[in-house]
Structure formats: C-alpha cells, structure tokens
C-alpha cells in the first residue's frame, strides 16, 4: 500500500511539472532608432508625432537611459539616445543589445562636413566608418627635423599597409598629422581566436540598399527654406572623441580616410553591432563644416534643421524595410 501511494505521489508531481511548462512569451524583435542627443531626438520625435501610423506607447529607464517603445507601420521600434562621444555610444548600444531583442539598428544624427562639396542639411549614409583619432603620439627625431620616432610595432604596422591595400582599397592612406600617427582599433568577437586590427566597420549592405532606394523616391528636401539638401549613400565617415573644428586637420582627414563627414559615435556603434552580429546603418545630416568655415562654427544654427532632414531619410528607409 505504501509503495502504491509513493508511486501515486510521484505521478502527481510529474503531472504538476508538465502542467507548469508553458511557452515563453517572447518580446518582439525591435528596430532600434538611435540618436546621440536632444536636437536629434527632437527631429525623430516630431516625425513620429506627425505620422498617423507611428506611435510611442511605453517607456523604460535603464541606468539613466530612457528607452521609448512603439510601432511604425506595424514594425516594433525602440528609440533611445546614446549620449555623445565614443564611450557613451559603445556603452549604451551594448546595454540595449543586452536588455532587448534588437534585430537592426538605424542611427541618425548630425555631423561635420569633411567633403568640401557638402553643406548644412545635406545627408550622407556612409558605407564605412573609421576612427580618425585611434593613434600614436610620438616624439620628434632630433637628428631629422620634421621626422618622428615611432615605436617599433607601429613601424612594422606601416610596412604592411601597401600589401593590405592591394586586397582592400578602403585601407586608409596613412600619414601623420604632425606628431599624431593614425592607427587601428583591435577587435575580437565570437569565432575569432585572437584580436585583429580593423581599419573600419562596414554598414550592412541590406540597410544601405534600403537607404539608397528610399532616397531615390524622396522629394526635394528644403533646408531652412534656403536650399535643397543633397542626399546620398556611399563613401566613408570618420569618428573621434573630439569636436572637429580645425581646417588643416579636416584636410588631413579627407586625405587619409577619404571621408565625407566626421562625428563622434558612428564607428563605435558599428563596432558594437559587428561584435553582436546585428545589422546597422548610420544616417548623418551635415550641421557644420568641421572647421572649413570662415569664423565661428555654425553647428548650433543648423543642428535642428539638419536633424529634421535626417529624420525624414531615416523614416523613408524604414518604409523600405517595412515593405520588404
């Protein structure tokens, strides 16, 4: 009798365990719409408020960062600001990937023009993003005026560049800016046995193609009623932890990296997305000339106007993705 009772209890326990197993309620996979700071967020929010098929219905705060959740034409979206500069961008992007199921990232913000043909309000969706200030600062060579004494590892690094450039034409044309010698970031991710140099991070072809198609369909975009913006996909962008407002450094960045625009977050966003195997693209609207202007930098004059044009390109790109 006791044996039968024991078996019956075990049977009931087994039934209870089976009944407790339920399918997981998975969160939707979000398209992340990301900016750096307030004027850029304002441009995106104004666009969402003006669209009948876009909404924000929930907010969450994680370690001081506010995440806005909603939908755009049925697509789940999460919107947040990384904060300005490389460290904030990398930290906040990794936090978002850790907290939420994000399938793709569309980053939009303002930038300084490095290409002298660009003007405030123009929008560039660069194919590749480089760190312009990942570098080696070295002493001058007292025996050879105008020359410097780089460490041995950097001299060895430079010797490899011609060979690398044959295989990849997008490797920069490295040359120093006075005592500043450009270098590359070292990256490791799943599937790699050791860290490797990365000259740049390439945006996802699928998202670049969506941006390209979106721009082709967009009507002319006026910038503060002054002129129509130039919008295009292609070329290189550069990222650094500095607000670039120096004419000679701007020329150097153009020579070395063949850059269209410069800013303070995109390469970090690309690096974190690359390590996490998440598709990404960055849309940059020109707010200033990065030192190419005469007199005072006008970034604060055009930041909001440029952000509005950038937001329109952002949502036109999402339209293409939703339609796929």
Automatic annotation (TrEMBL):
Gene3D superfamilies: Nucleoside phosphorylase domain. Pfam families: PNP_UDP_1 (PF01048). Residues 40-305 form the Nucleoside phosphorylase domain. This is 5'-methylthioadenosine/S-adenosylhomocysteine nucleosidase. It comes from Agaribacter flavus.
């Amino acid at each position: 009798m006791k044996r039968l009772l024991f078996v019956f209890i075990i049977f009931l326990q087994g039934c209870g365990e089976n009944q407790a197993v339920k399918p997981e309620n998975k969160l939707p996979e979000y398209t992340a719409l990301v900016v750096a700071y307030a004027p850029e967020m304002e441009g995106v929010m104004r666009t969402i408020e003006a669209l009948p098929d876009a909404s924000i219905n929930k907010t969450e705060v994680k370690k001081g960062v506010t995440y806005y959740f909603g939908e755009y034409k049925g697509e789940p979206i999460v919107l947040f600001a990384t904060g300005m500069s490389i460290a904030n961008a990398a930290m906040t992007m990794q936090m978002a990937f850790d907290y939420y199921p994000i399938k793709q990232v569309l980053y939009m913000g303002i930038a300084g023009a490095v290409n002298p043909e660009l003007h405030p309000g123009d929008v560039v969706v660069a194919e590749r993003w480089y760190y312009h200030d990942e570098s080696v600062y070295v002493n001058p060579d007292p025996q050879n005026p105008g020359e410097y004494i780089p460490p041995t590892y950097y001299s060895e690094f430079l010797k490899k560049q011609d060979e690398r450039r044959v295989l990849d034409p997008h490797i920069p044309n490295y040359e120093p800016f006075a005592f500043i010698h450009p270098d590359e970031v070292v990256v490791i991710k799943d599937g790699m046995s050791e860290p490797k140099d990365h000259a740049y991070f390439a945006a996802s072809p699928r998202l670049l193609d969506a941006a390209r198609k979106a721009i082709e369909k967009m009507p002319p975009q006026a910038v503060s009623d002054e002129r129509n913006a130039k919008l295009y996909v292609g070329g290189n962008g550069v990222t650094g932890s500095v607000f670039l407002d120096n004419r000679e450094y701007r020329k150097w960045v153009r020579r070395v990296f063949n850059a269209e625009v410069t800013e303070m977050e995109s390469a970090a966003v690309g690096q974190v997305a690359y390590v996490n195997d998440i598709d990404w693209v960055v849309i940059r609207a020109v707010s200033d000339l990065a030192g190419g202007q005469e007199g005072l930098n006008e970034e604060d004059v055009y930041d909001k106007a440029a952000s509005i044009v950038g937001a329109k390109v952002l949502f036109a790109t999402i339209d293409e993705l939703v339609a796929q």
